[in-house]
Amino acid sequence: MSDSDASGEHEQGDSGKQPGVESRPVSAAARRERRASARPAGKSEARPGSTRPSGKAGDKVAKPADAKGAPTPKRDRKPKKASLFARFTRFIREVWAELRKVIWPNRKQMVTYTAVVLVFVVFMVALVSGLDLGFKELVGLVFG
């Protein structure tokens, strides 16, 4: 069964084709060939002085011949730590950068947020105190 049979169309031979319209390529190689022939001249070849490697992203790029004889670097080497002073300075710089990103509330917002927090805390204290008193009375009735 071909792609055209699966879609419900029936093969009509060459007589059913429209003149000038090519059929869809069947294989991936044929599709690549058709795409390559449709590109404008000079697009598929690498330009001189270009830093991009030619070919697809998955293609392996040839390494220089002199890199073959070089030993493989060790992977277990740990990078050198910076000095204590340099690490502390970097930490302070990063903290300062993060503090610049903070959106600080204005006075009105601070008063509103503080009032909301205080009301919530008073509500929770009242709730826990009420439950504590209720459980105390319940335990007094049960164990008398």
Automatic annotation (TrEMBL):
GO terms for biological process, alphabetical: intracellular protein transmembrane transport; protein secretion; protein targeting; protein transport by the Sec complex
Family (UniProt): Belongs to the SecE/SEC61-gamma family.
Superkingdom of source: Bacteria
InterPro entries, per the entry: SecE_bac, SecE_sf, Translocase_SecE/Sec61-g
Record keywords: Cell membrane, Membrane, Protein transport, Translocation, Transmembrane, Transmembrane helix, Transport
Function: Essential subunit of the Sec protein translocation channel SecYEG. Clamps together the 2 halves of SecY. May contact the channel plug during translocation.
Topology relative to the membrane: Single-pass membrane protein
Record-given protein name: Protein translocase subunit SecE
An example Gene Ontology CC term for this record: plasma membrane
